[in-house]
Amino acid sequence: MTDWTTSDIPDQTGRTAVITGANTGLGFETAKALAARGAHVVIAVRNTDKGQKAAAQMSGTVDVQELDLSSLASISAAADALKSRFDKIDLLINNAGVMTTPKGTTADGFELQFGTNHLGHFALTGRLLDRLLDVPGARVVTVSSNGHKMGGAIHWDDLQWERSYNRMGAYTQSKLANLLFTYELERRLAPRGKTVAVAAHPGTSPTELARNLPKPVQGAFGVVAPLFAHSPAMGALPTLRAATDPGVLGGQYYGPDGIAQQRGNPVVVASSAQSYDLDLQRRLWTVSEELTKVAFPV
């Protein structure tokens, strides 16, 4: 199906969906669509006031959980709170992220983009995974970016960009890491046969994620965006299809079907050759476990 829309989302009644960064942009559209189809949605956000305002704009059952992905302590506390409330989680959507930020570090000393976009979601997934294991139809959906193809290899010799920092390079490394993580997680989940790991990317969509781009770039983007970008509602469709389409297979990657995957309806797309490298996937997994001190039950 190449014209998949929110009308194709199956009934989600009885399902619990945890979505990071869902108070704005793509995450907001994802949460709104799932709640409208009957899911019990939990939007996990750093600013709970903004989260409550976002939840008030959605129909259905929507709760807010405080979560700062740049802090391992916050991730641990959020996971404990969610596990105390839910015996099972059907969907974990790793959506939140930062892009092209000035050089900075997380509370635990990781480079901000790698630490938030990859390590934060790695740790959260590891701490919540026992609530998804052996749940029929459960999925971990991680949102990457078409930009993962632009950054070259993982900077193993300077993983935290301490010697030389490049905003876009750090961002694209974090998005490549999202895919390496997804594919390795799927390989570990596959023998159990119930929970799957899937990835998605939104194409190009004007959201708050671009707020750290240089002002001239933001201005130029605003002028040309109508030519190649699509709305946040459209940008959320690959994530929604990855999360709900009954035909989804573990390890698939969803993105727009238009030119250069910039806009369009969600379909299965290919990621970079590098993202499928088994040695890279395993190496990143090992390093991520060491850095976060989170061990997965698979």
Automatic annotation (TrEMBL):
Name of the top EC class for this enzyme: oxidoreductase
GO MF annotation terms: oxidoreductase activity
Superkingdom field: Bacteria
The entry's keywords: Oxidoreductase
EC number: 1.-.-.-
InterPro entries assigned to the protein according to its UniProt record, in alphabetical order: NAD(P)-bd_dom_sf, SDR_fam
CDD domains attached to this UniProt entry: retinol-DH_like_SDR_c_like
Official protein name in the record: Putative oxidoreductase
